[in-house]
Amino acid sequence: MKNILLAFSFLIQIPSYSLANDSTGYVGTGGVAYLKNAHVAMQSEDLFISKKLIKVNYLYKNLSSKDVAETVLFPLPRIDNFFEADFAHTEALLKSFKIIVDGQNIQPEMHVRTFIQKNEKSPLIDATDLFKRCGFSQTDMLNPWMRSNDDYSYFVDKLKQCKQPQMQKILANFKKDDEIPWSSQVIYSWKQTFKANALTKIQHQYQPLVGGAVALYPDEYNQNFCMDAQFKQGLKKAKAENSPFNALSYILTTGANWAKPIENFKLTIERDKNELVSFCWNGKVEKISPTQFQMTKRNFVPKQDLDIIFVNVK
Questions:
Q1: pLDDT: is 301 or 151 the higher one?
Q2: What Rg, from alpha-carbon coordinates, does the chain have?
Q3: What's the rounded Cα separation, in Å, for the pair 124 and 84?
Q4: Which pairing describes strands 211-213 and 245-251: parallel, antiparallel, or unpaired?
Q5: Which tens digit of pLDDT belongs to each residue from 19-43?
Q6: 241-295 tens-digit pLDDT
Q7: What is residue 271's DSSP assignment?
Q8: CB-based burial of residue 122 (10 Å sphere; 0-12 exposed, 13-18 middle, 19+ buried)?
């Protein structure tokens, strides 16, 4: 059995958050993305999240008597090419990304896609092939992930000088002195064979995209992070209602795309010693150490993603 997952746009919905002018942006990352397959089940998922590291151990089981060959995708968010404020350390994520299958390091293939969008109300145009025809290398197209404003004018000029009719048609929607907002998305892929009636261990890890702001306003951020009365009391006790904070997002819902619910799910969240942490979770949260919290579920079907806030209470 062989299925090649070629469609990228509908695999996951990636949230983005705009916190404040004095903030550092963050967007959601997650686990492997996969179209529903009736023959491969996720037997267990062991997920560890901290500000420095996201690490996931998966155990998959092929329920059939035949090998199942798939192209597995790990999509990252779209990142804009121009920014006025700080942003999460996107380059560090790319450099730290690792995949290990049954104890062997896998070198995934990197796909870079580019998009142009005049404003939030305008359609998002996939311009990947046009960028290539205009002479952009994959390294050029990765520029938004490298967070270099120094190259911004160079790439905009290169776009404007491109003679490709389709690109000129897109650019005709902009005035002469307008900025050209384009973004790039990184998608990792690798070919994976799930052996018949066998287990496959897949591990990936990377440095997450962490953002934040210099001052917390609990009422403004409460919906995303489920800051309950106990958490707010802790802020008040530490006189930290308006303290600096960090935040990150993790996409859990792709875990619902397998043949069955996740048989055994474990989530561990780690904070620093001088921090309070809050997040939305439907179920028991156990404190297993001074800095770690753990949650477990049986036959888990994730229905919402995870947003975590870390508040400095020094």
A1: 301
A2: 21
A3: 21
A4: antiparallel
A5: 332 333 344 565 555 556 788 888 9
A6: 888 888 888 888 777 667 788 999 999 999 999 999 999 999 999 999 999 999 9
A7: -
A8: exposed
Inter-CA distances, 214 with 88, 110, 210, 264, Å: 14, 35, 14, 38
Cα gap 237→141, rounded to integer Å: 48
pLDDT band at 3 (very low <50, low <70, confident <90, very high): very low
Could you give the CA distance from residue 210 to residue 275 in angstroms, rounded to a whole number? 15
Surface-to-core class of residue 309, CB atoms within 10 Å of its CB (0-12 exposed, 13-18 middle, 19+ buried): buried
Judge contact between 218 and 309, C-beta under 8 A.
no
Q: What is the dihedral of CA 275, 280, 286, 290, to 10 degrees?
A: -10
- Whether the CB-CB separation of 114 and 141 falls below 8 Å is answered with yes
Reference 143, options 179, 112, 111; nearest CA is 112
**Cα 192 to Cα 30, 91, 108, distances in angstroms:** 19, 26, 11
For CA atoms 148, 152, 158, 164, the dihedral sign is positive
Q: Tokens 């508040």 sit at which residue? A: 311
Asked if 200 contacts 57 with a C-beta cutoff of 8 angstroms, the reply is no
Q: How far apart are CA 138 and CA 115, in angstroms?
A: 14
Classify residue 25 by its DSSP letter.
B
d(CA 57, CA 45) in angstroms, rounded, equals 6
Residue 22 sits at the vertex; the CA angle it makes with 308 and 97, to the nearest 5 degrees, is 45
What span, in angstroms and rounded, lies between the C-alpha atoms of 207 and 27?
13
**Overall residue count recorded for the chain in this entry:** 314
Which amino acid is residue 25, in one-letter code?
G
**Between β-strands 306-312 and 245-251, what pairing exists: parallel, antiparallel or unpaired?**
antiparallel
CA separation for the pair 11, 5 (Å, rounded): 9
